[in-house]
Amino acid sequence: xxxxxxxxxxxxxxxxxxxxxxxxxxxxxxxxxxxxxxxxxxxxxxxxxxxxxxxxxxxxxxxxxxxxxxxxxxxxxxxxxxxxxxxxxxxxxxxxxxxxxxxxxxxxxxxxxxxxxxxxxxxxxxxxxxxxxxxxxxxxxxxxxxxxxxxxxxxxxxxxxxxxxxxxxxxxxxxxxxx
Length: 179
Hints:
Blueprint: H1 4-15, E1 18-19, H2 20-31, H3 39-51, E2 55-60, E3 68-73, H4 75-86, H5 91-94, H6 96-105, H7 112-127, E4 134-135, E5 138-139, H8 148-177
Antiparallel strand pairs: 1-3, 2-3, 4-5
């Protein structure tokens, strides 16, 4: 169980119990620009996780007539989040949107060395030569592309990767120095 939605549900409920609408709003703020979270997506995931014993639902009086259902993590749910964080699948390292979801909750992983190891995995991924555009097997740099729009893609991606790499280096050093 390591989808962006699963990690988001577990992560936000790790912070505090929430009702479905609050949970959906928080997930949408984190990932909504990439993939919208509909009721048809969220509630089946909640039911699946509830059935697996990862979360529980409690009815509480609502502001209007209908009660509202508040979701909270079970001990098994807390352990599942920590499992997902401690050994994330490779797409959570290489895919920017999954990476941001992982990063949003990485503070809950209690071992700083484990946090640093995950950051090192991301740093290694960013250090590998890559491009959005290739000539054969050779990745193209912005200076090798004639199209100004593709140059923009490459320049923005490079600047973003450089900024992230600098942050990763600083944070890894801090995490390793605090043990």
